[in-house]
Write a structure and sequence with these properties.
Aminoglycoside 3'-phosphotransferase, Chain: A, domain 2, about 45% helix, about 350 residues, three-stranded antiparallel beta sheet, six-stranded mixed beta sheet, alpha+beta, Phosphorylase Kinase, domain 1
């Protein structure tokens, strides 16, 4: 599979599902067979658009003159100028599948083609349809059990165990400092959002946007001084899927280098109900550390790991505090779970805020 620089790069859903364009885009999969029909199965719009669809192609082989293939396409489609400025994250995901995924044992969707626009500002990723292969995507509205969280933590450990690859891939950058430098949501608006539905039930100190930004800056400084791992960066429930073979990871738009605890604290606190997380988090952390040891990785002592976990909770809490293009029920639930964990561990104070 190689990236295909196709001039007529689609910017709308209709263009992306055009049979002529798909004939060119899917050439690495079909050998250039002509796409004769496209059927849309499901469209999911958040920041990027995900389209589940099937294609019928002719001339794939003499033995099978026609074939129907279930696929999923992801890209920035039908977006305004402001959202289009985020095209770099689509390139990052394409680079993950092209340059990094072949070297990792992590379970992820089978990518069949990546397509970049001629100016190199955007990319589209086309994968086999996980649902069509018997998989099922998880949701914030369907809480994990501790056993299910342990299964996805194992996949994160497999990802982290590939951190030696970072030396060969300088395009994978740290992201925490970017979040501190760039004002993705102005402070007054962030405070207004935390004072609204998403912050209900959290203490005033946890909902203080000024304190949150100070804690994020302190975490970025602490994280940059520690060992750097290959991390997913957005390990919430919606980016986990389950197959008969086990859990898998999707959505590599926040792929980065950083401390292992950013992924682990975020995942445990986001996918588990508050009471379950409070009861199970230390045990799950221990399971993750043992998995890393089994994979040949050095891990910190238990108390040092626990301290890293407790401060790293600020990362996931910040990401969901600034989220604006996701269903409110999901955003509010993640902010509550992650904010409750920040409160329970007094993460701000641990970071000197």
């Amino acid at each position: 599979m190689t990236t295909q620089p196709i001039p007529a790069f689609p910017v709308t859903q209709a263009q992306a599902l055009d049979p002529a364009w798909l004939t060119s885009a899917l050439a690495p999969l079909t050998g250039g067979a002509r796409i004769t029909a496209v059927e849309t199965v499901e469209v999911i719009r958040t920041v990027a658009t995900k389209i589940r669809f099937t294609v019928t192609c002719e001339g794939a082989s003499t033995a099978a003159p026609t074939a129907k293939i279930a696929l999923c396409l992801k890209g920035l489609l039908d977006v305004d100028e402001q959202m289009a400025q985020g095209g770099a994250v689509t390139l990052l995901e394409a680079d993950f599948y092209d340059k990094l995924a072949p070297h990792l044992p992590v379970r992820r969707p089978d990518c069949v083609a990546t397509v970049t626009d001629p100016a190199g500002k955007f990319a589209i990723v086309i994968m086999r349809d996980v649902i069509g292969q018997g998989g099922r995507f998880c949701s914030a509205l369907e809480p994990f059990s501790a056993e299910q969280a342990a299964a996805s933590l194992e996949q994160l450990a497999l990802l982290h165990s590939g951190s030696a690859l970072l030396g060969r891939m300088p395009w994978i950058r740290p992201r925490l400092a970017d979040f501190v430098r760039n004002t993705y949501v102005p402070l007054p608006l962030l405070q207004e959002m935390l004072n609204g539905k998403r912050g209900e039930g959290l203490p005033e100190r946890t909902r203080d946007a000024t304190l949150l930004l100070k804690a994020l800056a302190a975490l970025a400084e602490q994280d940059a001084a520690g060992p750097q791992y290959l991390i997913h960066g957005d390990s919430h429930a919606g980016n986990i899927y389950r197959t008969p073979e086990g859990a898998g990871l999707i959505d590599w738009q926040l792929l980065q280098r950083g401390g292992w605890a950013l992924d682990i604290a975020y995942h445990i606190a986001a996918v588990l109900p508050v009471e379950t997380a409070a009861r199970e988090e230390r045990h799950l952390l221990g399971q993750y550390l043992r998995t890393m040891q089994r994979l040949g990785c050095e891990v910190p002592a238990p108390e040092a790991a626990w301290a890293a976990y407790r401060t790293a909770l600020v990362y996931g809490y910040y990401l969901w505090s600034i989220t604006r293009r996701v269903e409110p029920a999901i955003t509010n639930l993640f902010v509550n779970r992650l904010g409750s964990a920040v409160t329970r561990h007094d993460s701000f104070a641990l970071l000197g805020v």
